[in-house]
């Protein structure tokens, strides 16, 4: 009798284990495709963009002509509480690891690290390599804007960043890199800014025997990385252009392409250059640390580089542009934009240990030099 009850108990436990441990079907999951965070009146408003495939009238389960997303918002004293409010409203099995981007409102204070990032660091579903960016105004405004083209809304952000990066006009920032940048004393880094721009197209229609023409303006909205922002001491400050973001990405080894305006006599070209190699050299002389960036690059269109004089001319122009930009960022903002402390830590570890608690003093004796070889 005891043996009988023993086997019955084992069977019941197996049944309970099977049904409680059964994995959730993908179709039953609530998939978060984007997260927007805005700071309002000392609290946070989180907007979750949820992937909801709409296949009505389409041959597939997902109709690209439809938004395929819905938005849910929640507020709280921290981002953790605001997201919890959203998840309570959603119910079901939430999966946040598929998020394509974390979009921050323009007035976010990144120095409040615990309030902002505790949820992402404690959640097992979080993906630390997710892209981070700023909204031109509020994150909610960007996420709720309908984008009228044939691309899935949930794929818009990574596609836009990929396109800008390939054109040498963007520097990408992942969550893990952002958190590492916040460890620096000046909390300095660059974030791309997303804006929604309007595209207008005109159509002419003729009616009646008088052939009167009326012009109808059709407006569609386009999501773009329009510029970047320098984050200093946790707050968004000065803005930089797409080209300048590309300069930073190239010098930091995060891009293999750079877009530059070069002058060949009376003609100004906007050219894209491929980075063939990048080398950093560190020398110490007269109590000054010289960090030299040696860049070897080639134009993607070699028609304007057909003679030696052009090559020398472009080398001088490109070096001047990059050196001017580096000097401006270094003097007006922060050398941490170029990861100077990491470079010193790698090439001069003893100096880094000596000045690790006072990097500002060390940076006063550092000079950045850019050398370009354009072929």
Task: Explain what this protein looks like in three dimensions.
- The radius of gyration is 26 Å and the shape is globular.
- The chain is an alpha/beta fold and 375 residues long.
- It contains eleven helices and 14 strands.
- Helix 9 crosses helix 10.
- Mean pLDDT is 80; it is low at 22-26 and 202-219.
- It starts with a helix and ends with a strand.
- Strand 1 and strand 2 (43-51) form a beta hairpin.
> Any low-confidence stretches, pLDDT <50, length ≥5?
22-26, 202-219
- Rounded to an integer, what's the Rg over CA atoms? 26 Å
What is the overall shape? globular
**Biggest sheet features:** 10 strands, mixed
Helix amount: 25-40%
Q: What's the overall average pLDDT, rounded?
A: 80
Give the SSE string: HEEEHEEHEHHEHEEEHEEEHHHHE
Count of individual helical segments: 11
Distance between the first and last residues' Cα? 89 Å
Which percent range describes the beta-strand content? 35-45%
The total of beta strands comes to 14
Structural class: alpha/beta
């Amino acid at each position: 009798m005891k043996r009988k009850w023993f086997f019955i108990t084992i069977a019941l436990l197996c049944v309970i284990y099977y049904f409680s441990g059964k994995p959730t079907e993908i179709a039953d999951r609530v998939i978060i495709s984007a997260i927007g965070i805005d700071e309002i009146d000392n609290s946070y408003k989180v907007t979750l963009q949820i992937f909801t495939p709409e296949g009505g009238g389409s041959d597939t389960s997902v109709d690209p002509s439809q938004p395929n997303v819905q938005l849910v918002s929640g507020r709280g004293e921290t981002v953790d509480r605001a997201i919890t409010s959203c998840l309570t409203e959603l119910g079901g099995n939430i999966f946040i690891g598929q998020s394509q981007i974390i979009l921050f409102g323009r007035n976010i204070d990144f120095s409040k690290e615990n309030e902002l990032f505790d949820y992402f660091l404690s959640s097992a579903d979080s993906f630390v390599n997710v892209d981070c960016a700023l909204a031109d105004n509020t994150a909610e405004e960007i996420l709720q804007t309908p984008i009228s083209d044939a691309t899935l809304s949930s794929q818009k952000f990574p596609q836009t960043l990929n396109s800008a990066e390939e054109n040498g006009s963007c520097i990408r920032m992942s969550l893990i890199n952002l958190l590492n940048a916040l460890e620096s004393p000046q909390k300095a880094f660059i974030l791309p800014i997303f804006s929604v721009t309007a595209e207008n197209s005109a159509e002419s229609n003729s009616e009646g025997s008088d052939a009167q023409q009326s012009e109808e303006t059709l407006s569609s909205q386009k999501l773009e990385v329009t510029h970047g922002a320098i984050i200093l001491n946790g707050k968004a400050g000065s803005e930089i252009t797409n080209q300048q973001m590309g300069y930073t990405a190239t010098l930091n080894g995060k891009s293999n392409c750079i877009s530059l305006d070069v002058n060949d006599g009376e003609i100004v070209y906007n050219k894209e250059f491929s980075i063939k190699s990048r080398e950093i050299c560190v020398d110490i002389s007269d109590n000054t640390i010289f960090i030299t960036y040696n860049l070897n690059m080639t134009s993607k269109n070699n028609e304007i580089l057909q003679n030696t004089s052009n090559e020398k001319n472009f080398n001088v122009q490109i070096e001047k542009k990059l050196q001017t930009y580096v000097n401006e960022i270094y003097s007006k903002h922060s050398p941490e934009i170029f990861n100077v402390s990491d470079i010193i830590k790698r090439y001069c570890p003893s100096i880094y240990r000596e000045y690790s608690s006072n990097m500002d003093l060390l940076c006063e004796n550092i000079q950045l030099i850019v050398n370009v070889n354009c072929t």
